[in-house]
Amino acid sequence: MAALVYAAAGAAMLAAALLPRLLGKARVSMPMVFLAVGVVAFAVIGGLPDPDPFTHLDATRHLTELCVIVSLMGAGLALNRPVGWRRWATTWRLLAITMPLSMLAVGLLGWAVLGLGAAAAALLGAVLAPTDPVLATEVQVAEPADDKDQDDDETRFALTSEAGLNDGLAFPFTYLAIALTTAGSGWVVHWIAVDLAWRLGIGVLFGLVIGWLLGKMFFSARSRKFRLAEHAEGFVALAAMFLTYGLTELVDGYGFVAVFVCACTIRAAERSHGYHRVLHQYIEQTERMLTVLIIFLLGGAVATGLLAGVRWQEVLVAAAILLVVRPVAGLVGLIGARTGPRERLVVAFFGVRGVGSVFYLAYALSAGHFEHPEALWRIVAMVVIGSIVVHGITASPSMHVLDRLRARDAA
After folding, report:
1. Given CA atoms 27, 28, 32, 38 in this order, what sign does their dihedral have?
2. How far apart are CA 87 and CA 338, in angstroms?
3. What is the pLDDT of residues 93-123, one digit of tens each?
4. Fewer CB within a 10 Å sphere, N or C end of the chain?
5. Which residues cross the membrane (predicted)?
């Protein structure tokens, strides 16, 4: 069996390298392929490890946590546009309007249609609020540009920056759901002061400070031995990511926020330097391998009974979250935005749900006592699988049409 595992791992890594190039603009994404492979492998091959995330909460939490922080680092490094109130106006709208509306709508669906209690409904809204930087490569910024004057198109920029920030901003609301399971005295004050203000503030502060220090070291240290940008060491991106995440979590800050802010700050230190491309390529390759593993295991969990006992109400809610809640909330959030109508439709539709939602659910279930945990896993799994399929089929054609129309308008 060990030999089979090694051979399968090698084949999976090779496929992860080849598939993005082989698929091209086809209406099939790499996550769709590995999801199907996971379902088939666990249905046909006996003796494979149990992939059930509900049974292995800690392993699920740590594996998805690693994948998310790697992806957040890559998203921050890829963004070419400097941070600013007006330059990031679309992002702020998605975070301040679309995300709360989505959480409220999902929570109400969980309460009214599925009969969940307040804590479980709030948790469902929190874990399905963040869009995912892991599974959304087709609709996000591809890589850093060496030209400092080159800007990202608004659609890809909005989806990348939104995913980079709302993955961390979902944490306060996850803690809110956990607090509702205890309902002890003073939890409201604790949630506002600690879970919202302190943890978020520390995440931003540590990301800025560590990113600034690392940027100084990478690009302008007095000694050339410390100027790592001159040595093209790509794995340093992992060092920056782990250092930022670990230090922030040690003081109870939001490490997700810190990692993304750190990556943006490093990028701002020397925006046109080619070292950013080296760092991003290393992160992208690491992210791809982790994504392959997680999606493969998700397919295996489906094959071994993760969706057993699913009710039609749960299917209806999952479909509504993907096809109604996010598109409507996205369009509402972008009312009055400077983006064109075509861009608004694409941004509103591609609220990809993925690995981040799995992490938050595993984290919350290991920290609190929620009713109907099996139902929560079924709904989140259906939303993630539905996002992989629906967005995987439509992403490349949609972006191709949008790019073509944009080029025609420019001409």
Report:
1. positive
2. 11
3. 999 999 999 999 999 999 999 999 999 999 9
4. C
5. 6-23, 30-48, 60-80, 101-129, 196-214, 226-247, 290-310, 316-337, 344-363, 375-396
∠ CA 381-386-390 to the nearest 5 degrees?
A: 160
Q: Determine the Cα–Cα distance for residues 407 and 411; give it in Å rounded to an integer.
A: 6
- Fill in the amino acid letter for 337: A
Cβ burial, residue 385 (10 Å; 0-12/13-18/19+): buried
List of domains in the chain: 58-302+312-410 (1.20.1530.20)
What torsion do the CA atoms of 164, 169, 173, 174 make, to the nearest 10 degrees?
Answer: 50
- The answer to which of 23-27, 255-259, 293-297, 367-371 has the lowest mean pLDDT is 23-27
Hunting for tokens 């929560």 — which residue is that?
A: 376
Residues 6+ apart with CB under 8 A from 251: 202, 206
The radius of gyration of the chain from alpha carbons, rounded to an integer in Å, stands at 21
Instruction: For residue 117, give every residue at least 6 positions away whose Cβ sits within 8 Å of its Cβ, in sequence order, or none.
Output: 111, 371
Alpha-carbon span 169 to 339, nearest angstrom:
24
The stretches of 198-274 forming alpha helices (DSSP H) are 199-220, 236-250, 255-269
Assigned token pair, 373: 């945990």
CB-based contacts of 333, cutoff 8 Å, min separation 6: 93, 94, 96, 97, 98, 101, 348
Angle at 17 between CA 11 and CA 22, to 5 degrees: 100
Whether residue 68 contacts residue 329, with contact meaning beta carbons closer than 8 Å, is answered with: no
Q: Is 21 exposed, middle or buried (0-12, 13-18, 19+ CB in 10 A)?
A: exposed
> Each residue of 320-334: b (16+ CB within 10 Å) or e?
bbbeebbbbbbbebb
Angle made by CA atoms 82, 88, 91, in degrees to the nearest 5: 135
What's the burial of 209, exposed, middle or buried (CB within 10 Å: 0-12/13-18/19+)? middle
pTM of the predicted model over 0.85: yes
Report H helices in 152-235.
154-169, 171-182, 187-190, 199-220
Tokens linked to 409: 């308008």
